[in-house]
């Protein structure tokens, strides 16, 4: 008998993000070279062999070696043979073949990369959880999985097999989860926004409860009981770890679930409202408008 997997907040958020494949590329470069990239949303890369420099505004130059991986979130960056080489736009190099490019003289370094964009407007919040760059060094336990997934992505993207695009979507989602996991496990808790709550033994069970029952109108006392804390202490710790008050977080998650159902299902607004604990369409509309800035009906039409 197949058991239903236990849900968790990060998986829930990823489920409504709508990640889709945008491109997958291979770059070989040698000699003296530098290329400027402008990611659509998120770009994943791994150095297959050799080494190169990663350069970003307001960041110290980072030397990448074989096996190192990095994730860039919506921020222009430069890959180069040295920190002081004048770059050209990568788009010029990929003009003839958007999948593969060779630049410079020789094959000193090879990089494999994948990009994603998002179908869901709510995915912006997910991107905002990441810093502009996450570097995963080859010695990290995360790097081998990251590199393998990008290698599989490259093979699927260039294949003509049935289901290749679906495989790319799934591989990109797995890559993104690996990047988020690495970030959650290694970053300073203060820099993690609500993800910091997943590392707090008192707050994590509350987050799981909220995501498990989005239809429940959560009260502060109920959540404090789950955390085994007093109401005042719980409220203060939750706000510090998550960046929002507990009741506000629960409401916002409920409205994100509502938005996903409005966008992806044919259920009536009344049915969605009732299933999420609202006694009237009017009360649901007020809550939805406060979070999303528009009525449920208008949100569905525009989506």
TrEMBL record:
Choose one Gene Ontology CC annotation of this protein and give it. Answer: cytoplasm
In its UniProt record, a GO molecular function of this protein is: sequence-specific DNA binding
Question: Please, one GO biological process term?
Answer: positive regulation of metabolic process
Alphabetically ordered keywords of this record: DNA-binding, Transcription, Transcription regulation
What InterPro entries does this protein map onto?
Answer: AraC_lig, AraC_XylS_family_regulators, Homeodomain-like_sf, HTH_AraC, HTH_AraC-typ_CS
Q: What is its main location?
A: cytoplasm
Q: Which residues form the HTH araC/xylS-type domain?
A: 204-302
Look up keyword Manganese and say if it applies.
no
- Compartment(s) of residence: Cytoplasm
UniProt xrefs under Pfam families: Cupin_6 (PF12852), HTH_18 (PF12833)
The protein's matches in SUPFAM superfamilies, at most eight in alphabetical order, are given as:
Homeodomain-like
Its function, per the record, reads:
Regulatory protein of the TOL plasmid xyl operons. XylS activates the xylXYZLTEGFJQKIH operon required for the degradation of toluene, m-xylene and p-xylene.
The entry's protein name is AsnC family transcriptional regulator
The source organism is Pseudomonas reinekei
Provide the organism lineage as a comma list. Answer: Bacteria, Pseudomonadati, Pseudomonadota, Gammaproteobacteria, Pseudomonadales
